[in-house]
Amino acid sequence: MAAANSHFLDIRGCSGHLRMHQHSGRWLLSEASSHSLARTSLFNIQSKMSFKGLLKDEDVAAAVQAFAAADSFNHTQFFAKAGLTGKSDDDLKKAFYLVDQDKSGFIEEEELKLFLQTFSAGARALTDKETKAFLKAGDVDGDGMIGVDEFVTLVKA
Ligand SMILES: [Ca+2]
After folding, report:
1. How close is the Cα of 4 to the center of ligand 1, in Å?
2. In terms of domains, do 27 and 79 share one?
3. Is the pTM for the entire model greater than 0.90?
């Protein structure tokens, strides 16, 4: 990836272009182009790779396609169509950490809004109405976020 005599590392992916530089032995983000970068680009690249082992591409595509219209999203039907329903707790936890893009341990409202995009980069964002309904369904303890156990419970419900 990085040339031996270079202290820069260029990462190119479908989500844009990131440039990292080495500072005191640590890699830091020095610049990025296209899209709003920051928290999503790098993790989106990982997500797409990781969902492959977990779910079938055609199931994910069909699930995303089924809710292409604004305000049509239904999480129970989505989980079923994508093949998440019936997965083991461990697999559901893997899925959770892909949706938890900033690895905070919680799916915050902002990440929930981008839920479909985690599965398919070209998918739409959820509307505010859908996001709030989704959050309300999963947020059992009422902290405004969905934790890993809440996610597993929601998918299996
Ligand atoms: Ca998070």
Report:
1. 35
2. no
3. no
Note whether 33 and 48 are same-domain residues. no
Per the structure, how many domains does the chain have?
A: 2
Torsion over CA: 60, 120, 105, 129 (sign):
negative
72 and 17 housed in the same domain:
no
85-132 pLDDT per residue, tens:
999 999 999 999 999 999 999 999 999 999 999 999 999 999 999 999
How many other CB atoms sit within 10 Å of the CB of residue 47?
21
What is the distance in A from the centroid of ligand 1 to the CA of 137? 17
Distance 5 CA to ligand 1 centre (A): 36
**8: containing domain:** 1-38
Q: Tell me the CA–centroid distance for residue 88 and ligand 1, in Å.
A: 22
